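Data card: per-record layout.
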Amino acid sequence: MLALRPNCECCDKDLAPDSREAMICTFECTFCADCATDVLSGICPNCAGELVRRPVRPAEALLRHPASTERVLKAGGCASSGPLAA
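The structure for this 86-residue chain is written out next.
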């Protein structure tokens, strides 16, 4: 089950569980649409995987399976870290 992390790893923007701005890779690294597009060019800086829109969990399902509250933030930002950095 997806963790539905609450923030962008690059800019720390809040991403609600029903946000259509949340983008993820197959490891659930989470980014806002602006960072995923403008900074990362659609590629995860952690695993080099494709970033796609995160699905929205229905409100009824969130009652039984709540979103994560764990915030993940890349200390050095996204532009200068991960396997893609030179």
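Known properties of this structure: Residues 1-74 form a domain with the Herpes Virus-1 fold (CATH 3.30.40). The mean pLDDT is 91.

See the next section for split statistics.
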